[in-house]
Design a protein that fits this description.
Length: 116
């Protein structure tokens, strides 16, 4: 019983990390970003980006994602009603597990509305 509990606790520790992701816009935005509704934006879009952490999420300890730059990289000039979903895919968890937490990828899904 003790072995099962210690194995379970070890497994939980392998799935944890110390990383943080901050979301911001640049001081001189290259795309219009809004969490509120814009009546001109009627086309719903969604895209994903990936960020990597190593050494159990210690390096880098935090990353900043500039939403306006990511939106511009996707080819959009504006995005409203933004929703951010930071999740771990099955692949992310398998990489994390099989590298004993050394490699910790994260998948971020950004969705919202843009002009047609």
């Amino acid at each position: 019983m003790v072995k099962k509990v210690s194995l379970f606790l070890t497994f939980l520790c392998l799935l944890s990390s110390c990383s943080t992701i901050h979301y911001a816009t640049s001081t001189k935005p290259v795309a219009q970003v809004s969490f509120s509704e814009n009546p001109n934006n009627t086309q719903e879009v969604s895209f994903q980006i990936e960020r990597e952490f190593v050494m159990w999420g210690l390096i880098p300890s935090h990353q900043t994602i500039y939403l306006d730059k990511e939106i511009k990289l996707q080819g959009y000039e504006t995005l409203s009603q933004i929703k951010i979903n930071d999740k771990r895919t099955t692949g992310d968890m398998l990489y994390h597990l099989f590298t004993f937490g050394f490699y910790n990828p994260r998948t971020i899904i950004i969705s919202g509305f843009t002009e047609k």
